[in-house]
Amino acid sequence: MNRNHPDKIAGDNPGAEALAKAEKRTREVRSAYELLKTRRTIR
Known about the structure:
Blueprint: H1 6-9, H2 16-40
């Protein structure tokens, strides 16, 4: 998550495409985490 977070890479002045990719990956990671939370009863 830390590698792909848009705020973390924003300091490196990435292009719009890199930021969009980071945002997409962050959404994917969060979605997967939410799915696991419901299946494993994590808070």
